[in-house]
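Every protein is a chain of amino acids, and every chain bends into a shape of its own. Below is the pair of lines this work produces for a single protein:
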Amino acid sequence: MPIRISEQTAKKGFVEKVKEISGQNVYMCFQCGTCAGACPISDQSDHVPRKVLRLAQLGLEDQVAASNTCWNCASCYNCTVNCPRGIDIARVMEAIRLLTLRRNIDHVHPSKVPVEVIKAAPQIAMVSCFRKMTG
């Protein structure tokens, strides 16, 4: 289904915020798809990194925030190493996470984590998860 872009859906300043936080220019991406081929979690994400960058280029902050791709990103840097334009995509994903959390949109709610998971998971893993996925 095509995405309809209007003044109401495109957030002015979103790309500038991503650039300010990440130090990366998302407009450099020309949609070659190399990042998607290198990404080990692309099959577990609703969008490949290339599409997230395209949505960001268009200023579609709500669609980017709704995607699980930036939350699944393992920051393994496979995308960055393989990008022919030298974009540090992992840093862009981190910037998108930070901007989403600044809007008070948590990806994980600590109160909804099952007790079994809390008991079984190492404490450092839980702290790391909450730091990455909650505001």
Q: What stands out?
A: The chain has two domains: 1-103, 107-135. The CA atoms of residues 23 and 129 lie 24 Å apart. The chain has a mean pLDDT of 88.
